[in-house]
């Protein structure tokens, strides 16, 4: 099945207001910036985003955030995104913070058809007991807090119940892909991308290099095409446009 779509605009044309969206990447690594830009240009709003973080340096999801297009974020890292922190503390944005490993497993579980699982991460904290601020009231108070979660004991150790995540759409970026949707990710961009792709009901992949069917050794495939519904090939300029969040050099 040929899943190649001609343009990013065409690939995201049916993403509606209020959609839930899993997005791959970590910081500026492996972020599907072209698909995000196409969604920004469509002026889609009210989005519920599931991503490790919400963009950085006015790149990636940060452009949707700054434009007020995101209503809720499920993630694990605010980092240096000052606008993310400002909107959260001002009560303009609902934020569910999750331990990073738990977020990864919730995405993977959703994609694997596992509705819920138990993990020790967060036991004895507000992650399990409830009370984490999901939304502030803009005056320093909490308008909406997380509910308590089920905790059970197995072999003398307590575990908290976490639910798998499924989203309407997923955006990911891969170093290489074929028309069937088989993907290969480059080094650290193989972070949340495969997991986000699994969680989406409709997954759209932007690929830096599109090869012919059979052009990827089956043993080299990081994500099989069963999880991908649409593929767009980036131009050389788009593929090369990779920002550096923290540039360090040695003397």
From TrEMBL:
NCBIfam families on file: pcaI_scoA_fam
Annotated keywords: Transferase
Single GO molecular function: transferase activity
Species name: Streptomyces vastus
Similarity section: Belongs to the 3-oxoacid CoA-transferase subunit A family.
Pfam families found in the cross-reference section: CoA_trans (PF01144)
Gene3D superfamilies on file: Glutaconate Coenzyme A-transferase (3.40.1080.10)
Protein name, entry field: CoA transferase subunit A
Origin superkingdom: Bacteria
SUPFAM superfamilies associated with the record: NagB/RpiA/CoA transferase-like
Signal peptide: none
